[in-house]
Specification:
This protein is α/β, with parallel strands linked by helices. Helix 3 crosses helix 4 and helix 11 crosses helix 12. The structure holds ligand F0G. Ligand F0G binds next to helix 4 and helix 8.
């Protein structure tokens, strides 16, 4: 047994092929190995490889992701996203994944596991990106796809994308947290395989965002890695990635994690502000619909990630995150609103002296600019989009 599932609280172990998402004690499970396999030279060499699994920014790190035969891997491939530098800040653009968000990194692993355990149908609750990713990978693997989305609360582009790939969309009359509770019950009762980030294989794939950005930086760890925080899968995955990279000697020092929430959906920030004395649950509201989440499922893993990396949790208002989005968009990079919490958070943490001058900062942009066009079109200034008659005079007048 080279890898297994282990409870993060009571450390009870289960076989890697057992279909379960939580321990009998109720806590979350993580994929565990005796030690982290693979090494930097091997990962660097694979960057030149031509096979899909070498080109995948997930499976390039396969020894440390999942013990599976190469021919059993369901990969698009994904990852291998760009790292941009603008005004001294680095941006790892996970919106450049095949379905336009970071979710593909976890989904390739979860769907590979779904096939391995013989699942015929997979499901998730989603604010839109997980559902699009699930639908694409299910289509590739020939599995039935069912997504539970909060009715009327998902961007049109994400919903259209999910439907285009062929998934069944159940529009739940309630918020994301209600859809999440419902999909957990449904999967348990109806024998459907659950691929939300409560599924520990999702986390294994999402670790590779961090490993790939370390690789982009020639394994010189930055001072800060900044990530949006909603359901807390990424924060959890990034903590595990850094813990494993440090233990394996891939990096000499730990970067600090900064998880950023929208102030209208800030249960994790509230807990952090009280030294994690209490877990908060709330009814969430923010323009960043991807992270409109009030009861994040990976809370306990994310607390460990912040503690182990000497990390921080910050909150930003909708105005602050939309201002940061305008900056990122005008760089010619672009991202969806939730992703822009990162730069908004950096601005706030710098102003507060938490991030110091000269520190190297990587923001992880989680979703593509086209994921939420409503958020853009609602804010276009009148002078930027002008309807005209098809005449040269009209053009000249518009340019004046
Ligand atoms: N950014 C984007 C673009 C997202 O879609 C999400 C989550 C997050 C950030 C937050 O990441 O949940 O790991 O803390 N979207 C999920 C979904 C909930 O259903 O697509 P997290």
């Amino acid at each position: 047994m080279s890898e297994w599932l282990e409870c993060i609280a009571c450390r009870h172990q289960y076989a890697a092929t057992e279909i379960r998402y939580t321990c009998d004690c109720g806590e979350l499970l993580e994929v565990t190995r005796e030690r982290t396999l693979g090494n930097r030279a091997l990962f660097d060499e694979r960057r030149q490889g031509r096979s899909a699994i070498d080109q995948s920014g997930v499976w390039r790190f396969r020894e440390a992701v999942m013990d599976v035969a190469p021919e059993a891997i369901v990969t698009h491939p994904e990852g291998s996203t760009r790292l941009y530098e603008r005004e001294g800040v680095l941006f790892k653009h996970e919106g450049e994944n095949p379905t336009g968000s970071f979710k593909d990194r976890g989904m390739t692993v979860a769907v590979t596991q779904a096939v391995r355990v013989g699942a015929t149908a997979i499901a998730c609750a989603s604010t839109g990106n997980t559902s699009a990713s699930l639908a694409a990978y299910a289509a590739q693997a020939g599995l039935r796809a069912i997504v539970f989305v909060p009715a009327g609360k998902v961007s049109g582009g994400k919903l259209a994308q999910t439907l285009a790939y062929g998934a069944l969309a159940l529009q739940v009359r309630g918020d994301f947290d209600a859809a999440m509770q419902l999909v957990r019950q449904a999967c348990h009762q109806l024998g459907i395989y659950l691929v939300n980030s409560i599924n520990p294989f999702r986390i294994e794939g999402q670790k590779t965002t961090v490993w790939e950005l370390l690789q982009d930086l020639e394994w010189q760890a930055p001072d800060w890695i900044v990530v949006p925080a909603g359901n807390l899968g990424n924060t959890s995955a990034f903590g595990k990635a850094l813990r494993e990279a440090h233990a394996a000697g891939w990096i000499e020092r730990m970067p600090r994690l900064a998880s950023i929430q929208a102030s209208g959906a800030n249960p994790f920030f509230r807990s952090f502000s009280e030294s994690f004395r209490e877990r908060h649950r709330m009814s969430a509201e923010t323009i960043a619909s991807a992270i409109r989440i009030g009861d994040p499922v990976s809370y306990d893993k994310a607390v460990a990630a912040i503690r182990e990396t000497n990390g921080v949790v910050e909150q930003v208002s909708d105005d602050e995150l939309m201002a940061a989005k305008r900056t990122i968009d005008r760089y010619g990079i672009g991202c969806e609103p939730a992703s822009a919490t990162t730069l908004a958070g950096v601005r706030k943490l710098r102003a507060a002296g938490v991030i110091k001058d000269g520190e190297r900062v990587v923001c992880v942009l989680t979703g593509h600019v086209l994921k939420d066009t409503d958020a853009i079109m609602k804010n276009v200034p009148a002078e930027q989009m002008i309807e005209i008659d098809p005449t040269l005079e009209a053009v000249a007048a518009a340019l004046a």
